[in-house]
Structures are given as C-alpha cells and as structure tokens.
Fold each of these.
Amino acid sequence: MLVHITERCTVRRGAKLYMNSPTLERLFQPSSVALIGASKEEGKLGHEILRNLIEAGCQATLYPVNPKAEQILGLKTYPSVDSIPDKVDMAVIVVPASAVPGIMEQCAKKGVGAAVVISGGFREVGTQGERLERDLVQIARAAGIRVIGPNCQGINNPHFGLCATWPLVKRKGPIAIITQSGSVGAAIACWAEEEGIGISKCVALGNRVDVNECDLIEYFSEDPNTRVIAIYLEGVADGQRFIKVCSSVSRKKPIVALKGGRTLIGMKAMESHTKSLAGRDEVFDAVCRKTGIIRVDTLEQLFDIAKASAFLSEPKDAGVLIVTSSGGFGILASDTAERLGLKIPEPKEDAKKKLGAVLPSQCILSNPFDLTMTTAERYELVVKEMASDPEISSFLAIFGDPISGAAEAISRAQRSTDKPIVVAYLGGSDIEKIERSKMHELGIPSFPSPERAIVAIQGMLKRSQYLHADHS
Amino acid sequence: MLVHITERCTVRRGAKLYMNSPTLERLFQPSSVALIGASKEEGKLGHEILRNLIEAGCQATLYPVNPKAEQILGLKTYPSVDSIPDKVDMAVIVVPASAVPGIMEQCAKKGVGAAVVISGGFREVGTQGERLERDLVQIARAAGIRVIGPNCQGINNPHFGLCATWPLVKRKGPIAIITQSGSVGAAIACWAEEEGIGISKCVALGNRVDVNECDLIEYFSEDPNTRVIAIYLEGVADGQRFIKVCSSVSRKKPIVALKGGRTLIGMKAMESHTKSLAGRDEVFDAVCRKTGIIRVDTLEQLFDIAKASAFLSEPKDAGVLIVTSSGGFGILASDTAERLGLKIPEPKEDAKKKLGAVLPSQCILSNPFDLTMTTAERYELVVKEMASDPEISSFLAIFGDPISGAAEAISRAQRSTDKPIVVAYLGGSDIEKIERSKMHELGIPSFPSPERAIVAIQGMLKRSQYLHADHS
C-alpha cells in the first residue's frame, strides 16, 4: 500500500490531476452525505438520487440541501452546506454548472472530503464550461477534496447502501464497474441486479478532473467486496500509469475491458462524447495483451465475462467438456468453441466405459456428451467422472430442457473439482428462471445461450494464458 | 397454390418422403386430438403434454389414451385409439418406440389424418430403431397419415391453443419456428413469450420421415398468422427443393436461418445428433445468398432478426441514423455498424439548423444524434425531421436512461415514416421492462444492447439487398 499512496501523491499531467487524500474511503463509505440540489419535484435528478439513497438504506446520515424546501421525502432540508449542524464527509452535487464553483467553495469551508459532481455543462460544452471546470478543480485541489466527475452519473456502493446515482440498484455483489459512460455502468449494474449477482461498486467517471480509472482500479484491487473489475473506457487518462497499474492488479483480480471508439465512425462519435483522444485501436489491443486485461467486443460480453470471472477460477487450458441435454445446443457450443480456438477433447475410453455402465443407452458418450432427456444428477455424475481427465480444463453444462435441481447438482459437482463449470440454461420457461437465479446464489455463472457461455469460458482462458505465460 | 399442391404429390428420395394429403391443416388445426401415452405421473412427458394442451386452451377435443387410467387431469381416458367414440384428426404419440408401429396401425384404422411422434428410439439409436422407423413410415404412408418426427419435441400452434410440446408457450405472435432441435425451438418460443411477442407455430422436425422443412416453409408462406420464418437446421432434407422453395417464399416472407455444424467439431457432434449429412459450410452459405435466406451465426441472432423482421419492413439502404440519450451506447452502436458495413451518414445542415432551434444546447446534432438527458418526445422530433433525408434508410433509437413514454413516442414516429425504427432500451431497471414490453405490443422491436439492435438492422438489410438486386 505504500507504493500506492506515493503514486497518488504525484501531480500528473499539469493542472488536471492531483492527489492529496490518501484513500478514496470517504467516497465509498462516508459517515455523512450532503445532496446539494435536492429537489421536491419527482423526475428531477435531485429528487431521484435522494430517493435512491433513502431506498438503498444508506448507512451515512443524509442531508438534503435546498434553500427553498423545508423537507423532502421525509428528511429535513438545509438551505446550504454550512447550515448543516454536523461534519459532512461527502457532497453529491446536482446544481447547474454555473453554481458549482460556489458550492465547492462552501464544501471546502465545511471540510468536505469528497464530492461527486453529477452536473453537466463543463469542458464538454466549450470555453465557458472549461472555465467553470478549471475553477472547480482549483478549489477542490486547494481544499484536498477528491472529486468524481463532473458531468457523470454518480457512484454506487450497495455494500454501504450508497446509491448516489440512478437507477436504483441495491444488490451487493462481486463486480466493480468503472465507466466513462453512465449508461454503460447502469446497464451492467441493472443486469447484475436482475440476475441476482449484484455489484460491489459502480463509478461513472465523467470528465475525470481528479479520480480516474487508475485510482479506482488500485482501490478496487484492495476492496474485499470486489472480485472482478469491469471497465468501459473511451480513452485512458494516463497511458503509462494505466499499463503499470493494470499489469499489477490483473495478477490479483481479473480486469475486463470494453473500449468504445474502435472504428473511425465510433471515434468520431467519441470525440463529441468525452473528448477522449482515442489513439489507434491496435494500441489499446497491445496494452490489453501486455497487462492481462481481458478485452471484450460488446456490452453483453463485458457483463458475461465479468460474471464468469467473479464466480470461477480460470481454466488452466483450452479443453472444454460439453455436457448437454440438447444435441442442437451441443453443436452450437462446439461450433463457437472451435471458432474461438477452444478444444473439445474426446473422453478417454475407460471413462466412457464407466459412464456407459451407469447411464441409459440413449446417451451419447462423446464430447459433446449428450445426455438427451435426463436428470440433473447425471450432469453431476459426468463432471465428477471426467474431472480427472488432464485434457479437460473446464466444463460447459447445457440444460436445454426444464430440468429441476440443476443448480444444486452443478453446485455439488463444482465442490468436487477446481475446474470451472459454466452453465447455459434455456428452453425451460419458469423453471429456467428459478434455476438460473439459484445458480447465481450458489456462485455458478449461468448464461442464456450456449454461444455466450463459450465466449465466457474463452474470456477466462485469456487471463489464465496471460498469467501462465508470464510465470514461465 | 396449384404448383404447391402438385409439388407435394411428388414422391421424393425413394421411400423416405411421400405426400398424399393436400395440406397440413389437420396437424395445426385438428378438430380432435388423441394423446397416446397420456400419463397420470407428473414429470412424465405424457402428463406434461396433456397439461400443456389443456392449459393452452386447445380448441380441439382432447382424448387422453392410457389403458391403465380412467381419468387424467380431469379428462376421461380411453384404453385405446379405437375406443374413442369420435373421429380422431390428429394423434400425439409418446409411447415407447417398440409400441409405435402397433399404435400407427390403430391410427390408420381409425382414420387419423396426422401424427406427431414424440417418442425417440428410432433411426437415431441403430439398426433395431431403423426397422421400427421403416414400419412406422410404411403404415403411415399406406394410410395417408402425415407424420411429424419421430424423435421430436412436438408442435405448437398458439393461435389454436395446440401446445403439443413443452414447455407451455401460449402467446400468439408472428414468428413461425422450424427446428431440427427441439430445445432450439423451445428457447426461441420462450424468448418470444417472455418478451410479449409470441409465435405463430413451432415445429420440431425430429427424424423427418415425412414432413420436412420445405413442406413447412411452404405452408407457413400461406399462413396468415406467420410474418417471418425462423429455422434451425443441421442439414437439409432435399437440397434442390430447399433452394426452389426458399427462393420463392423468401420474396414473400423473410426466412432467417441458423445452421448447426459449421465447424469440424460441430459437424462431428451433429452426426451423433440428427445423422444429418452436413456438407461444407460454404455450400449452405451459397444457398442462403442464392435464395435470400438471412443466415445468422448464433441462437440470439436467430431470435433478434426474426423479431425485427416480424415487425418492420426492411431498410432500403445502409444508412442508419442513431438517436441516443447515451454517448457511450451511441459509440458502441457506431463501432458495430461500421464493422458490419452499415453507414452512419452525417445529417444535412438545414436539418441540423431546424433541430438546433428547438432542442436544448447540450444536444449533439450529428450522427449519432446525442440528446443526452432527454424526453421521449425529442426522439420523435428527430426521427420525423430526419425521415425525409434520402441518405437515412433506418433509425436506431437508443434509450440509455429510464425514459418514460418511449414506446408511445417511437410508435408515433414510426407511423409517420415507412423507414424502420429499431430500439435499444437499457439501463432503465423497472421502467425498461415496462417500456420494452409496451414496444413489443406496439410492434416496435426492442433490444437489450446497442450491438444487438445494429445486428438486427443489418439482418433486415441483407434481405432488402437480395430483393433489390433481383429486381434490378
């Protein structure tokens, strides 16, 4: 941690980045939060964020600030930050940009430690906004206030009930999200909530005047609630530091990254969005290979591979045993596996013989291992028998029918081996929903199609290959 | 229709295929159905199928057949087909393979018109099964019984309440599914139900001793409830006829196809599954290009492109206008569009000027058209203004925030233009669910990620290019 603190104290890239607070603790676990720009009006951000903080069960004391209201959503309202009769750890700011520097002055006087500036209207809108942003930075730096944003969708720490963003996502889980697009973060967080997985943190970076992706990657590498870091970036704030930080952190926790602006059209759109300098896509590709970042191509892959990596240890090698109740899904999984360079090794003769003796005659003892109409227990049987095969490094269990007890059977199978088991469950209507949700409770990643499950296995394999290559 | 009937009377490929019933009407709208092998035991297929038929509100009279029960699920049970005191249009058969030829004899005597043989244990298991299958075919052909299967997951016609399959899918909709894997059909049907879209028919082909994909494609081309035909195939039954039928039908209705066994490993798995002769993948690719079939790569694409094609007319050309509330999603959509060969034309200056006059200053008047924090009505405004631009052939509306009223606004916009509007709605938690379901009610295809929405537009464009190329 010493290295970590030293690095953070460095002033980088001229005036834009600075560090004078040793940790980001006050951002994620503040003892008190002032919401500046709290609103009585439903639909306004200042209202929605207050409601989300309340409904998420925020462990901090909440102080809505609004000079025109006495009470909002049952909470006493304060006319200004300095009228709050308590110390304020963190400020969440949703007032118009022109008022933000003044608010920051008040926060500085009050001794606020961290500010999440959600308001837009800064660098992204031109010269006048640039001036406001400069003022904001100057005041914050002088006072030692750590800043997220401005022009961002806020932060969420469900483990502390701190939903200073939208929509409301409460479920605690293992995925930390860092994003240059608030919507991308919200989408991943919503999926994680819906599937019963949850998130550890979500931070929308906005204009990154202070806290950037490197600070957060380092912080999350030490965060006991985070098992995987999922990132959406359009450009990196500091290339050299990014490489250094990711090279070190990716050995400890998987980092999965989606980069916007891969193509010329995408880059053009990006320049309007975050004004990031894109650089050539091949450069980012090289950075990922060098640092062990698992690079993905789509939003769904970002979620899928983060989910698999959060629950499972990486497969040691490329051999996958596919166990299925559906021949068709087995074929689709095989096609995808071959296309992505995975291997589908044939089971050994003695294992086939053993399994053939206990399984019904219609089962196809090959890879894919087609159980046809079957029970969940037979998947367990096959995985346990095949786990000792050195050619097999991971399992894909495909449930193509409404098979009950799948989650428990796979969980028992997983407890018997350290080779990862990924599930595709589909075609099962209500039972599918129940089983997939149970699986996520039991730490088994489950996907809605055989192709997505295979892509998740390949994503995990990439990190494994990186870790092994470096140690050899 | 004359050509159609004549074709069906031809005996093709030796003994395997035959035609002597002019239409498949008795399969999809039978006046009475005997379920042979109905069971009292929950979990058994003979029980689940009977329950699904009852719960789907089957319009046919149902006759469970089981010599050992008097009543199942409240219905009087008959000891055999011939004891049913009524004519039997269709038989659904779930008894063990060895008993099937005997049952077919009884069906023949009873004058049954069509049989869905769900039982497995025929050609797919070896010599003995081959013999049973030969017997089955011989009896059925002599009696003029149309057969689906054997070794299949049954059929579904929600427009008639005929769910002779599993799981229970009741929602009526525009997608017809033909599949060589029951699970693939079930997955697509479940997704269609879950998203409020529904299916027109679903047929699992099984061993295809009689009715094959060509018969069904022709039938669905005339079916008023079917707007798009989604197919999963491992091999085609009759290549020449397949080309002829698809060339003709694809001009009338979109045909979307996923083929299993593209790779060597996939082909090996396929030979165990349906014993289809795969042929080289490039051959099927050429067939698709020749016939106008929209070929897809994954199960989700099969559903996504069928969904878009069911609701919308094809875009005339490659230009897409992306309208978004999220810069990040706009970039991801742009990246995908460029990768797939779509175009993202810059809006004309006069349109920008007009829209600039009425939209807030933070909107980015470009393509992607980034509305940032916005209302649903502004999407409508942009689409209506840009619809006359000849460079724009389709729209992608991305809702990256929980924006209410999205479905109605897009529906109004769609009524004002014949250029298709595809939606990606995400990051909106509960509001997202409500809006996406409303959209499907209103005939607007909505996707859970920007990339999937772009892939759907490209799928529709492929058919459009085929239709235009041929007419030029």
Amino acid sequence: MDRPVIDHRSVEFAELGKCCLEGMKSVFQTSHPVIIYPSSGTGAWEAALVNTLSTGDRVLAFNAGQFATQWMKVASNLGLQVEPIDGDWHYGVDAVRIGEHLTKDSAHETKAVMVVHNETSTGVTSDIAAVRRAIDAAQHPALLMVDTISSVGSIDYRHEEWGVDVTVGGSQKGLMLPPGLSFNAIGPKALEANKHSTLPKSYWRWDEMLMHNARGFFPYTPATNLLYGLREALAMLSEEGLPNVFKRHDRLAEATRCAVRAWGLELFARNPDQYSSVLTAVLMPDGFAETALREVVLKKFNMSLGAGLGKIAGRVFRIGHLGDFNELMLAGTLAGVEMGLELAGVPHNIGGVAAALEYLTEQHRLQSTL
Amino acid sequence: MDRPVIDHRSVEFAELGKCCLEGMKSVFQTSHPVIIYPSSGTGAWEAALVNTLSTGDRVLAFNAGQFATQWMKVASNLGLQVEPIDGDWHYGVDAVRIGEHLTKDSAHETKAVMVVHNETSTGVTSDIAAVRRAIDAAQHPALLMVDTISSVGSIDYRHEEWGVDVTVGGSQKGLMLPPGLSFNAIGPKALEANKHSTLPKSYWRWDEMLMHNARGFFPYTPATNLLYGLREALAMLSEEGLPNVFKRHDRLAEATRCAVRAWGLELFARNPDQYSSVLTAVLMPDGFAETALREVVLKKFNMSLGAGLGKIAGRVFRIGHLGDFNELMLAGTLAGVEMGLELAGVPHNIGGVAAALEYLTEQHRLQSTL
Amino acid sequence: MDRPVIDHRSVEFAELGKCCLEGMKSVFQTSHPVIIYPSSGTGAWEAALVNTLSTGDRVLAFNAGQFATQWMKVASNLGLQVEPIDGDWHYGVDAVRIGEHLTKDSAHETKAVMVVHNETSTGVTSDIAAVRRAIDAAQHPALLMVDTISSVGSIDYRHEEWGVDVTVGGSQKGLMLPPGLSFNAIGPKALEANKHSTLPKSYWRWDEMLMHNARGFFPYTPATNLLYGLREALAMLSEEGLPNVFKRHDRLAEATRCAVRAWGLELFARNPDQYSSVLTAVLMPDGFAETALREVVLKKFNMSLGAGLGKIAGRVFRIGHLGDFNELMLAGTLAGVEMGLELAGVPHNIGGVAAALEYLTEQHRLQSTL
Amino acid sequence: MDRPVIDHRSVEFAELGKCCLEGMKSVFQTSHPVIIYPSSGTGAWEAALVNTLSTGDRVLAFNAGQFATQWMKVASNLGLQVEPIDGDWHYGVDAVRIGEHLTKDSAHETKAVMVVHNETSTGVTSDIAAVRRAIDAAQHPALLMVDTISSVGSIDYRHEEWGVDVTVGGSQKGLMLPPGLSFNAIGPKALEANKHSTLPKSYWRWDEMLMHNARGFFPYTPATNLLYGLREALAMLSEEGLPNVFKRHDRLAEATRCAVRAWGLELFARNPDQYSSVLTAVLMPDGFAETALREVVLKKFNMSLGAGLGKIAGRVFRIGHLGDFNELMLAGTLAGVEMGLELAGVPHNIGGVAAALEYLTEQHRLQSTL
C-alpha cells in the first residue's frame, strides 16, 4: 500500500477498481455485486439496513454475542424495530427458533433477519444455510442479512449458494489489511428491496455505487491505498487457494483447542460443530479475572489477547488465529498464553503448547502420506 | 503510515488518538471538539446533517459550484428540504442573499445554512465570516455549516472565531494524506441541536464518538494507519507554522494566476478577493475543449489536470497547488500546462511560466530584504 | 526494497541473483559476465585494478576531470605506477594522445588504459570506441578500463561492441537506487589477465564471485535489499526500452543547454559532440562564486545543485538530469536555477526556462507528427 | 530506511553521519574511533588486515570454526603468511595455546593474532580478555584482531576494556539491519601500526575515512539508506539498554538449550562458559543428515534453520536467536524444530518446547519477585 495516491477518475484507477470488485465476488462466493465502502465494518452494517428497509420496519435479530448486540443497536439507532431472540452465547444461531418466530408472523411484518456468521466475542460460528432453510420453510419473505466481518476470507462462506440477501464484511481480519474498507455482498432480492426502501441514505447508497462501479469507479473518493492492499490480499488468497486457506484455519483452530483442553480450561463454545476457526474464546476458572492474565501477557511478552466483551467481560479471554497466520506464529501465541497463565497464577495444567504441537505434527504427517 | 496495526483498545493507541484529536482542533482553529471518521469527506457531509437535523427540515444551500451541488444532493438524499440559492459560479457565496432569505423566514423554518469555503470546481473561496454576520443580522437561529474539504490546512480557516457551527473536512488535500479520514468540527450550538435531531444515525453519531474520544478511543474500529499519517502531517504543519503554510499557498496561487494572465487566458474566478489559494480554474478559449488539453498533458508529461465539473464540464481546466507543494513543483506543473496548450493547439501567448517565476523571484527577494 | 531480508543461500535468493546478474548484462550491452559488489562505486574502481594488474604495473590514465583524478589516486594507493595524460577539462578523452603514448611504449610496459565515459565533474562524455581504435592502431595489448558510474543506464554504452575490457558502474545514478551496489563488466581479455594478476585481493576477487554467480549466489553476504531494488530498476528500464531511455536523457540535456544559452551563461563542455546527457556543468561569470548561488537555491527552494569539484571548485555549478527524471521535473529544476541566479545577483538574461520549454515542446510536436 | 537519499555532502547528512559514528562507539564499548564501510562484513575483515599489516607479514589465527577459516583465507588471499592453530571446534579459542605460540616467537615475527568472538558455525563464544592476557603475558607486540560480526549488539563485548586493537563487525545480525554496512573499531596501537603498513589499500583506508569522519562525512559515497536504519537501530538498543539486550539474549539462549536437552540431542558446544547467546548449534544423531530436517522445516513451516558449515556440514543444524527477537518468536522457532524432528524421523524425545517455556516462565517469575 506504500504507493502514491492516483487520480480516482483515471484509466489506471478503473483497472484497480474492477480487479478489487471482481475479486471480492470470489471471496464471498457470489456472482452478484459486491460493494466496497471506505469505512469500518460498522458502516457496512448500517449500509445493509438503510438500503433495504424503511423507517419503523421490524427486523428479527438473533443475539448470541456482543457483535450481534452491537448490530442490533445500529438497527435501533436507525429507527428500526428490533425484535431480539436472546440466544445462549455458548451456542450459535438457532435456526429453529428463527423459523418459529417467522411462522408466527403471518402478516410478514418482519422485513429482515440479522445473524452473525462468526461471533468474535464467543468463538462460535453459525450454520447460515440452516437459517435460510428455516426462513424458506416458514415461507416468509424476510431478507437474510449476515455479518461475516471476522470470517470472510478465513472460513468457508457461500453468499449465493446459501441464499443470503446481504452479507456484511470488513478488511481488517481475513483480508489481512488495516481497517478502513467494508463490504456489502448483495443478492437479487435485496436489490429489489432497495427500490422500495425509504430509510434516508446517501453515503451508503447502493444505486449510485453500482452505477459507478460498472466502469470501475466510485461515486466519491475511495480509499485508494487500501484498494492497492486489497488487490494484493486477493492475489495472496488466490495463490494459496481459498479451500487451502480454510483448511489452514481449521487446523490452527483445532490445535488451539487441543492446547485449551490440555490446560484443563473450558472452551466457551459448547457445540463442536460450531467451533470457530478464526478465534477461540476460553472461560477463566471461577474466581480468576481475565484482566490480570491479559496484563501479564502484554507486559511480559508484548502480546494482546482479546478481552471478554459485553456480558461476558471478565469471564473469558480470546485467542485469535486468523489471516496471515501459520503454525509457528500459533506456537508463539499459545506459548505466551501458557506462560501467562502460570505467571498470573491461573490454575491450569501445563502441556497446552505440547498438545497443540502433537496435533499439528500429526496433521502434517497425514498430509505427507497422502 | 507504513507500520503494523496496533490494538485500538490499547494505551499506546489512546496516545495516538488524543494526539490526533487535539491536533485537529488547532488546524480548525477551535477549542471545541473535532470528530474523526474512518470515511471519505462525503461521509462528513452526511454526518454534519444527520447529527443536527430532523427528517423534513429545511436547509438553505448556496450553490456556487459542483461540490455545493453534491452536498445539496446528500441533503436531499437524507430527506431534507433543500432550498437552493443559485449563485453565479464565477463568484463565491453571496452573504447578502443569504441574509435576505433568512430575513424573510420569520417562522425560522430554515434550520441550517450550507456553504462551501473553497469550491474545488471553480477555484473560488468564500467569506465565511460575512455569512455568519448575515445570519446574525437576520437574527436567525439557523446553524452555519461549512465544507472545508479542500481548504483545511491550506487556507486560513477559523471555525470558532467565525462562528461556524459545523465544519466538514477531509484528509486528502491540505493534510497530505491518502483519502480515508474525514472530520466534523463542532460548535456548542450544533452540540445542542444534536440533542433534538431525529434523523436516523448510527455510524455518524457524535454522542458516542465524543464519549469514547474523551479517553483517546473510538466507538468502533478506526483507520489506525491513517491516524499514524495524520499525526505526522500535524507535526509537519506545526513545524512550518500554519501562518507560513497559508502564505506559501497564497504565493503559489498568485504565481499561477500570473501565468494564466501571461497566457492570455481567463481565470474562472472573477473577484480577486475570492481567488482560491489551493487551486486555479482556467476558462478554455471558445471552441476549444479541455479534454484534448488534459489528454495531451497526461500522455506526454504524465500529469493529471483537473477536469471541468458539473455544468462547466468541458469549459475549464483546473490547476491544483496545495498540500506538500513548493515553488519548483509549481514550475513543473505550469510548464506542463504551457507545453500542453501549445501541443493541443489552444490559442495562448507563451511566457506563463516566465511570469510565474518573475513573481516568485520578486516575493523571495522581498522576504530576504525584510 | 521495503521487504524482509531473505536467506542468501535459498532457492528464492538464487532466482533474484540470476535475474540481477543477467539484467546487468543487457544494461552494459555485453554477453560476458557482470559482477555485482556490495560496495560504493569506488570499490568497483579498485576491483577493476586489483583483479587484472600486479604491484608496480604501469597504467595510463587520461585525466579530464575530478573523477578521473580520484580513480588515478585509487591506482596510486594500490601501488600502481600511474602515468597521467593531463587533458583539458573542457574536453573529453583525447584518443589521439592515448595512441601516441602507447605507440611510444614499444616495450608494452603500460598494462592498462583508464578512462572515464561520463565525467560527472565537467559534464563531458568521451568517445570510448575511439579510444579502443587508438589502442588497436598502436597494436598495444593494454587493457581498456572505463568508468561508467554516472552514465550506465542513462547514456548509450556498449561494453562488448566497443571492445572494453573492464567497465566500472554504480547503482545510484542511472539505476535509480540508493548507493551500495557497484559493478564490473568483464571482457575475455580481462578474464585472462586476471589469471596472472598478483595484486593482493580478497573481497574483490572475480574468480570466487564468478564461481558462485554461476548458480545465482555470492561468495559472501550480498546487499539483498538493494538487489530487490535492482530487479525493479531493471524492469523499469526494460519496460521503457533502453533506446527510449537514452533519447529521453538526450532531450532533457539539450533542453538544459537551451536554458543555459538563454541565460547567456557558458557551458563548461566545449565540444558539442561531447555534451553529457546526464548532467550539465555551467561556468559562473567571472567574479561570482558558485557557493552563493547553491546556497540560495538550497535555502529558498530546497534543491541541491552540484558544486564545482577539484581544480574547478568555485567556478562551475552542475545541473543533474538523470535517472527517473522527466520534462516537468527538469522545468522545476531549471526554474530553481533561474530564480537562484536572480536572487544571488548573478548576471544573466531571463528566459532560460522558457527556452527549454520551447525546445521540449518542439520535440514533442515532432514526435507526434511521426 | 524507506526514505529519499539525501546529498552526502549536506549539513543534514553530517548530523546523520556523526550520530551513527558516535553511536557505534557505545555499541563496541570504546572511546576510540569506529569506521563504517559500505560493504559486507567480509570487507571489514579485509580492512582490519590491509590497514595494519604489510605483504608477507605473519599472522597467527585460531581456527575454531568456519568463519575463522574464512577469515584466514582472506588473509592468505591478501598475501599474508597465516600460521593456524587448529582448535577443537567444540570449544572456543584457547588462550594458552596462543600464549605458547607467541612465547616461542622471540623474534616477534607474528604481527597479529586473529580470533573470532562468536563463531556462527559452532555456537561457541570465546573469552577475548583471556587472549589479551596471554599476549601480554608473552610480552609480545602482536595486534589483537577480533571478529564480532555475529555478536556485536547482542553479546557483551568490550573493545577498549579488553584491549582489542581492531574489532570487525557487521550490520545484519545484532544491529537488526539488512546486510551492507561493516565496521572496524580501532585502538591506538592499531592506528600506530597503520602508519607503517604497506599492504596496498584504497577503498578500506582508515586515514582518509578518519579525516572525513571528523566532520560527519565519508571520503566516498556512503550507503545512506542503511545509515538511516543504523540510527534507528542504535536508538532501539539505547532505549532497551545494552545490559538488558544482553540479558535477553542470554535468557533466550538458555531456553533453547533447555529444549535441546529435553529432546535428548547434544549441543555442539561443550563448555558451558562458552555457550553462545545468539545461536545454538545442535549435533544430529549419528546416521541422520541435517539436510532432510532443514528441508521439512522450510517446506512445512517456512522457517530457515542454519546448515552445518565447513567440516561439520551435514552433522549439525543451527538455531538463531538474535537481534529483534523475543520469547514468543523463540517458542515459534523451537516449535518448528520440534515438529520438524518428528516429521523428518529424527530420534528425539518430545518436550523441548515445554522445557524452554518452563525455564522462561521461571525467569520471568524471578524478575517479578525482584
């Protein structure tokens, strides 16, 4: 990204723009348009709502983590009626409960269903295809909106195959960039809804974006330097191959869980089918605060662990293992946690790093045998 | 900016955040808060409106250029009633006409007055203090909102002394950064209006920003790498001294106009008191399109001249002279224009560069004598 | 060059090494080996001598500038007997005088002839092919050694066609890199001489370099980051095409001379066939020191002009126009000189920049007509 | 280092030059001059010899590793008579044997003693003060020359206190820079010897360097961009404090040895007083080649382990732990080795990483208690 800014009305820019817009389609696994905003991921949450809904519309939101909670707050801020389904944060989105709600809504007052694919606060990944099936089974026209800010480019996500109407993404996780770009992948039903949406909107307008994007341009000044970075990130993902990127994250995540089990600590996520491949949240033993642990790890080893967020603040710490990350970086990370647990006096068994290494070694041995 | 992204919840980040937030106050010449958004300048236009106004509110907008036109469109998009005063684009904002409008509005239905400080499409700078006086003379409570996207950090601008309520700025001109940051400088009356504003808002909310900014943080992920750049830009402006920065731009702008006069071409701006110090728009002779000129300059000399925008497309070209710019870069720029005029067959006299150099030499001689 | 250092024994490094070694052959226009040292150009001067000569050997050096003088000093430092031909610094190497010296040396005691292709201190380029013809006409076996530190990659130079035995080059001029790499292009006769050379040598040894270079490696730690830069510079030269690079320098140099003539100043170089295309040395009018001029240009316009060097210190200033340089950068440079002449009170006519622009415009017009 | 090259004759450059030259004195712990060459470390080996010795001089070299062997070859290449003491590579320099040799040399034909402080091929650090005492005890005037290319800035080294005459250093290890700078720290006796040295020299001449260095300049083009980097590296070392830097390396090295012992592998270095704090060489079990191990680690984990060099090629692998290195990077490194040993089928016990972490945790616990 360390390059001069070019004129965003030039032919050279149009090539960059087209390359990024096309590349993002492959990352979201869709043939429909993806929009790129010069904003944080929070902006793309807002964009998904203001482009499809009208003031006072009802939205159904499954609240299974802090980021779901925050997205709901965005919806409320924008004047939507948010109907929450309070989930157990140890688990992912419950498609059955969504289906029940929608079935009851025979008047089709619910206009959209908001779910988070990978909940960064809990380390739980939800089954999005199941949510789609539940909506369809209820024969309900609500739009399906999915937040993939922490999963896109790291965990398999299929916007089109899974029938998602709007997907929200960001640049600073799986795409390995600084924050400053956010995304909306848009399906045909959402584009149709856009025509009737009356929520006030200007910066986030899809229609103007799509009109300019068709020729590789943007309706207002884009974050050119981040687009250079995005082009490079897309090339890196393409070189490794998305399926390999996903497998790498799966492997590192399971190794992390091996370490947690060996420490005798408890994973926050309780359903193995829902374990996140990009981060792992770990419960602190009763009576021990995560703050002390994170402080000692930061001070002694210059490593930032994730804090507990929202209603589980103080009770969990989070280990990230996403983006441009490999086995040895994970070993360093887990070593920092293991030494930190000891120095902070948190009850645990030693051997977490060793367990992770044993798993990783075995995986590589199997690979070589194939 | 070429540095690793740091944790935006860390102590190290808070220092960066505070430094940028304080520094921006000095650039806007205000003691009141400045808000920094991870967005293009267009976002800060929207933020000024949604934080202070309510759906259906009437705003008075002085339209003297393409960027004024676009800001008006943002207001319309957001559901505001835009009352335009169509200005002559050759001139700046006419405070008298604004005063007349407001005097007639005895019911105080107009909630805000929107003006552009430096109109990038025309090279005209307006007298903001005069607009304030006109509003006051009309004893009208409308908020004064000013766009300084292309002037802040390059042309003297005094948010507090001039009584502006909301000032809109961006990172990519006078602050010498890539696009991706935008600003709202906020006065007390605007903060008061914020309490009663009902336009839906979330990403742009001042209240949450101010709450987090108090400790150097942001309510959602900031564009950390651009903040590094902003800190450096603020240090550069401070080292040179804002008054010296302004004088440098004044000098380079007058040199540019010397060149234009020597070429026998006409300045688009007609009132010398309103000449912009950051860019100069030049009228093409009748029958000659700017496109051919800009193409030859780009192809032969790899330099992008500004195109005519909006209703003066095809009739003017624009020479930028702002940011980290000096005498020799200006000489190169004017040389490109002079050679381009000749190669594109545009009728003109030679000697523009020579006239600019004569003026600059004289200025430096006077400086040395002092 | 802003990349991590890679292992200089790795396969990845070997590809980089081969790319640079091959690319440098095309720049020197030779099919024989080119050696790359991690050193300043001064080191490559030394390398040419210690690899081919023996203690006490006699070398004939044509002294027509400060860099020739310094290379002679290197030779003396190394214990060689330097036989100087004192040239008139206003002119290039006089092949006739070299021929006369060699003809008299019937015992063939002279082992090498040292000449500078482009003399940076005087702005004079010499006819290397003529020197070769003079040596051949004298039927003398002396090696021909040529310094191209300031010309390689900017002025047409043909190591093989012109029959040069050792060519010396550096990274920081025509190759547009920071200083830190230097080159020896080696012909077959020089390689043969290497076998019998007894001057002590280790760091500069060709034999070990060539042995390792064959596989893309180096006998000791190379300056890896500069090699990344070199690969990029070679790609840029190749994209523009060497003949076009040479023409661009010729054009910018003639424009500079147009300016000098218009100022009524005198070019230091007196033979038009020997005008340098990479820099122009200008005589100061009698009674005016270059120091004052250079100081005012540095202080007012932040531009460094070249000082007079060696025996012409104080009497000339030098304008560089090489590397990644274009019309508009030249216009800025000449503008700085023209304003500096005025501010420093140096007698001159105005209109230098204008004359340069007129010439450049005409050249571009002719190009377009073709 | 990512900055434009500045004029190396300017005032701005002189400040950079002085800062680097002074800073290097503190790193070598000397009040006498340090010289900075634009070259690889190999060049500084040559410089130490050509500046102090004359053709045919005898030098005594203690050969306890591959880099000692290579320095001896440089001396031979330069026409010196190298008298080797063949040491056992498992151990450091034997000061007693040096003393014996010098005592026998009553004619004082030996002009210099060459030893390596930290032998990168073996992971052995030698007692330099003991060598000085042995020379003094023999009442012998030979100069003491020491290679610190892999130790300077990482292991405690005291040029002045230990009575070293010439110390050789490089930029790419403890100074955390790319290769391209090398150093000679010079004592008074070496400066005196310089006056009588007759080996041919030019690029490496101390006298011209010192003359120009006095004002912050260099006699020929320096590697400016690396000097920027050096200034930054010196600031980093100064901020952490050299004693803390040394302790950090000691701690990481002992942790590495804990891992090696837990694996049941043998350290190449046999005397605990001589264990290197910057790298650890490990013996392969009989019948197992290091090549296979290094290949699997490179392929699977993208990590380069050091190969066995010289006469121990194939029998050892080397783990580096120097420069800008911390606990978690070491954990990652050791994890790569442990998994590599398993995947390559090298007989070993598991638990190396765990042993290293246990040691590091204990060290940090003790620190906290203090």
